[in-house]
Amino acid sequence: MIKIIILVATIFMTSIFANTITFENAPKTPKHRLPNGQNEVLSFYSILKDSMNSVVNISNRTINYKGNLNRKFFQEFFGNQMPPNKSENSLGSGVIISEDGFIITNNHVIEGADEISVTINGREREYIAKIIGRDKGTDLAVVKIDAHNLHPITFSNIDDIELGDVVFAIGNPFGVGQTVTQGIISALNKFGVGINQYENFIQTDASINPGNSGGALIDSRGALIGINSAILSKSGGNQGIGFSIPVDMVKNVVSKLVLDGKVVRGFLGVGTTKVSKQHNQIYNMKHGAIITNVQENSPASKAHLRRGDLLYAVNGKILKNPHELQQLITSYRPHEEVVISLERDGEKIKQKVKLASIHGEMLNISSIDKTFNGLHINNINQQNRDKFQIQDNIVGVVVEDVEINSQAYIAGFSPGDIIIQIENMDIRTVADATKGFEKYKGKSKRIYINRRGAILLVVTN
User: Which own/partner contact pairs does 379-388 have at CB distance under 8 Å and 24+ positions apart?
Assistant: First the structure.
């Protein structure tokens, strides 16, 4: 009786699978063999050696001065012989991109450094680097050392990178010296991770650990495909989820940093949403970004773009989603003209748009008070509310940029700070801030800032 039941059940299950599932089978009896002869060793050394000579170790030293007093005060009285309290060191990596000493690294590797030193594979001496430019939004920076006949890395092309490619991460993990790890490309175009403002990562399972930041991710030819930036980890060590900034973004940002010392991004002025299945009956195009809002006096407004327009290409480059629209627009400079391809009421239209600056009309305090330079402020608007996550009830003026090594930088201002008061003057607009800085021009003044809910006091001359 038991056998009959089992037999019936087996026939029933076989019938279900036979009627509903078709399996695609691989060829049988594959060959199993070693990928080399009896007296050969499988090795990647020949393609790694040149790339390893292009990756450097970076040491970042920060000096804390006694009593946490203003650094400028000590410089005035002691010059370069300032009394240090202690020296803090952190380690990272960088990639040589020119024979005469330009090096890419991560912004977070050099941020806040009083001194940056570089050591090169195969060279005994240590080089002191100067900062050429840095970009917090992508976490990229360029430094330069006084050296010649260096070995610059070879760059790959983003279109040549595919999921599953074998890759190698080169860097200086934990300060143990130059190290190479192997893996594959696990994913492309990863964004929304919450690491940087402008994210478009290559994800890899090649081991990336603390100290690898700023190092190279290369393909099996030895060509650079990304700059290693971050990991997702509960323990702080490698767990197979590493992120690299892709080569196309690296080229774009580094070119701007070398040319201008900073990155100024193009601005269109639209809010968008992705194209989903519910839009299939309205739009012919099935990809791109649908405009949900057009900011007043923005480039989009001046070009007569409308709510409901579906943007599907910029300068002929196809857009898959709103994220790609943002990445592409911000890759252009302000005042560049681009051609937007859009669908409106079933009709395809091409519209020329002259981009503006993503910072809008920023006020540079150095134009008001020559003794206090490097601080760029703006009225709070929806754009910088979103950028810096400013709550609706916050009033003041927002610090949108701080120039490296400026007085504002030394005083401790950071992008996203909200200036709320100068001495006894409440600050609500740029006009208020202008009056405040003019009134106390060249004098010691107390500036109150709101930094993510904490009220801080900055005293400047």
Answer: 379/429, 379/430, 380/418, 382/295, 383/295, 383/358, 384/360, 387/197, 387/416, 388/415, 388/416
